Amino acid sequence: MGSSFTRRRVIALLVLTSVLLVTLDMRGSSSVSFVRRSFGTIFRPVEGVVRVVTEPAGNVWHGITDYNDLVDENRRLRDLVGRQEGAAIANIATVREAQELLALNGLPTLAGIDSCTTQVVGESPSNFSQTVEINRGRNCGIRVGMPVLNAAGLIGKVTEVFNDRAVVMLITDPAYSLSVKIVNQPVTATTVPSETEILVGDSTTTTSSTTTTSTTTTTTTTLPAIPGFVPGSTVPVQSTAAIPTIPGDTTPGQGNETQVTVPPGADLPLRETGALEGRGLGKTPIVRFIEFQPRFGQIAVGSPIISAGGATSLAPPDIVIGVVSRVVTRQGSLGPILEVDLAASLQSLNFVRVLLYRPATERQSP
Amino acid sequence: MMRLVALVERPMFRLFLVGLVALGLQTTVLNDLRPFGVILQIMLVLAASSGLARGSEVGAIAGFLVGFMYDLVLTTPLGIGATVFAIAGYLAGFANSFVHEPTWWSRMLLGGVASAVGTLLMPLALAMVGIEGALTTRVVVIVGVVAVSNAVLCVPFEKLCRWILKDPEVVPI
Fold first, then answer.
1. Residues of B whose CB is below 8 A from A24
2. How near does any CA of chain B get to the CA of A214, in Å?
3. 3-state secondary structure chain B
4. Which of B73, B120, B143 to mutate to test the interface with A (most CBs of A within 10 A)?
5. Interchain CB contact of B55 with A (< 8 Å)
6. DSSP A296
7. Which residues of A touch B80 (CB under 8 A)?
8. ipTM over 0.90
9. Residue range B19-32, pLDDT digits in tens
């Protein structure tokens, strides 16, 4: 076979073909996309059959190698679920209130963006790129660049779309980048708790109002048990302590009863923008290019990181990404580098949601 | 029907069919197993074994075809995998040509070395076309695991490639 070719001719031909292919692909040639699509059509059925045949082997392997990890993880998750069940109820109410406020002020919310729920059907077989494949594509309205989330938070963005499948670049891929906001909680000093009473519906619960010894004052409301609580319902708060309220929102004729209670302006979480970048498999993404402002103060480990949004950003604002796991300070005027502990676990992706969001600059006018 | 038989008898078509199955294994079960967090590269074994079985030229062509198929399911630029696998196939065949009487362990050794070179070249090639982030210290672990696993797999795959790439029989008239 190939006896007519000399060694040099073969090598020269292969090198030229390679250069041609790389050039065509790097320039975004449509013929390359066509070849990929056509090959995908042939290969998918073969892959499906091989997947079914080899699944028992994979299960045996995981059974042998991952059993202890699974037991540990199961125990840890049970503890975690127990801890978070209580917090989730209070969070639902907070989220609903925040959405109502955003809607009231005509600001965009994630709830107003259509989405396409889909399932992860494959991962990249390469050791050098982090992508997954999902089983919905152009037919569901998915386009290149759209953000992909799971129940915990952002996992990546769509990089290739076919009619009934799409490729998602994970947030850990070195090529991934996104504008994000870091929400820095103001630091409070030693607190002296003093008990006040807040009426929730007909029942009375105890809340701890804390007063700081510094100039800041933080009011924390904890509701350990909420009998008769309905998520989404507005909780009327009758203020018997010196909790600041929005003056215009008090209903005339109802004394101190108010619908909205906010902390003082100085205690609102401070936000700063930066750029999130993936660093490859096994490494946490980082946030860099943070503008250092004295008002922002020291970034605390555990500060939440959310998408920044904006007219040119591919992701809408306020998608949860993770929390700061480590702060690496740098000399001079360079801002710190933040290592990010992602909210979403990328090792066990199953059902994910593609937000059918396009930035304002990419939307076609009707 | 005769045309179909003639087509199946062509070595490169047989390689394409076997490559499809190997690619299926690569994207499914091997993608799941990941010993030491590394995905074993069965497509690279196929390329290196082709070189061991039929020499450097055939190894280069077979490696190119197998790498091209692999490229088509990856998101990396088309042609990178083809080039790297062609080099691995060529290298395996070229090195084997210097061995006076190849034995199973010499094939294992050469297959492992060719796979290691191929695995090392992949992030280098990606860096050359401007894709950063692949060339990290983790490459050392990947090269080690892939080299050892491919060395083991080279022996059966070399026999398989001998059958795949055998010249079509000429039927006397």
1. 78
2. 46
3. CHHHHHHHCCHHHHHHHHHHHHHHHHHCHHHHHCHHHCCCCHHHHHHHHHHHHHCHHHHHHHHHHHHHHHHHHCCCCCCHHHHHHHHHHHHHHHHHCCCCCCCHHHHHHHHHHHHHHHHHHHHHHHHHCCCCCCCCCHHHHHHHHHHHHHHHHHHHHHHHHHHHCCCCCCCCC
4. B73
5. no
6. T
7. 18, 22
8. no
9. 999 999 999 999 88
CA distance A164 to B145: 35
Taking only the tens place, the pLDDT of each residue in B44-93 is 999 999 999 999 999 999 999 999 999 999 888 999 999 999 999 999 99
Residue A355 makes CB contacts below 8 A (sequence gap 6+) with A110, A113, A114, A115, A146, A147, A148, A149, A315, A316, A319
B23: how many CB neighbours lie within 10 A of its CB? 24
Q: Does B51 touch chain A (CB under 8 A)?
A: no
Interchain contact, B83 vs A14, CB within 8 Å = yes
Whether B28 and A54 lie within 8 Å, measured CB to CB: yes
For A36, the closest chain B residue by CA position comes to: B72
Kindly tell me if the per-residue pLDDT of A234 is higher than 60: no
Q: Give the pLDDT band (50/70/90) at residue B162.
A: very high
- Is residue B102 within 8 Å of residue B75, measured between CB atoms? no
Residue among A1, A10, A167 minimizing CB distance to B60: A10
Is A293's pLDDT higher than 60?
Answer: yes
pLDDT per position as a tens digit, A16-62:
999 999 999 888 888 888 898 899 889 989 999 999 999 898 889 88
| B137 in contact with A, Cβ within 8 Å | no
| The length of chain B, given as a count of residues | 173
Chain B residue with the nearest C-alpha to that of A24: B78
Chain A positions in Cβ-Cβ contact with residue B69 (cut-off 8 Å): 39
CA-to-CA distance for A86 and A88, rounded, in angstroms? 5
Chain A nearest-CA residue for B72: A36
What integer pLDDT is reported at residue B86 of this predicted model? 94
* pLDDT class of A171 with cuts at 50, 70, 90: very high
